[in-house]
Design a protein that fits this description.
2 strands; single chain; mainly alpha; 73% helix; 223 residues; two-stranded antiparallel ribbon; 10 helices
């Protein structure tokens, strides 16, 4: 595929500026929601900045991986038929680290949200339903390989029809609209103020990824 010169950097100025703005906002208020708790020897502040760092690292690695494969076929040149396997080894642990580090934050900062624990748990259970159903729908109907950007590596994924089953019948972009509700669920089920702030960061920041990286890629791949 012949790509426009400089496509590798398309949208990335905004992708750079947006997290700086978001980080400035959360840093300014961090003294109010990173209290004195800890878990596994790591403080609330430590868990908070760890989960934020994981989210940023995940999206930067995704940009580098997807664009280097589109622009130069880098993974295929280096790893041949194992290109998608290598990409999965890079991508999936970072994806899993987002909820795992958020759980660590929620446990360390347990019961700090200034609302009744019963209400927080009820809200968490409520948003967990569409979030978990979206994750199921992604695995069942969309496929993990396709979800991690298989269409950047193989033509067959670009030729597949749009998915409209499960949560994708609610929205064609269900993974971002509903899937990230699982992070809100973690924050609410642990009744953690710091985790709520971190979940909001993750959810806002993934839309930056969508508009700056994924959407331009899709416009190119699917014309």
């Amino acid at each position: 595929m012949q790509l426009p010169a400089g496509f590798f950097l398309k949208g990335q100025l905004v992708h750079l500026i947006a997290p700086i703005v978001l980080l400035g906002a959360v840093y300014t208020g961090s003294e109010y929601f990173t209290g004195g708790g800890e878990w596994l020897g790591l403080s609330v502040a430590g868990w908070f900045w760890l989960t934020i760092t994981v989210g940023i690292l995940h999206q930067v690695v995704t940009w580098l991986g997807w664009r280097s494969q589109l622009q130069w076929g880098l993974f295929t040149r280096w790893f041949g038929d194992r290109d998608l396997l290598v990409w999965g080894i890079l991508f999936l642990p970072l994806l899993a680290a987002r909820p795992l580090t958020l759980i660590g934050l929620g446990v360390a900062d347990f019961n700090s949200l200034p609302i009744a624990a019963e209400l927080s748990i009820a809200l968490g259970a409520l948003v967990l339903v569409p979030g978990a159903y979206t994750l199921f729908s992604t695995a069942r109907y969309f496929g993990i390989t396709r979800a991690m950007g298989g269409d950047h590596f193989r033509r067959k994924y670009r030729e597949m029809p749009l998915v409209s089953q499960g949560a994708f019948s609610w929205s064609g972009n269900a993974m971002y609209v509903y899937g990230f509700l699982t992070l809100w669920a973690i924050a609410l089920l642990t009744n953690s103020l710091a985790a709520v702030v971190a979940a909001a960061f993750h959810h806002l920041y993934v839309w930056v990824h969508y508009y700056c990286t994924e959407k331009p890629d899709m416009e190119l791949l699917y014309k």
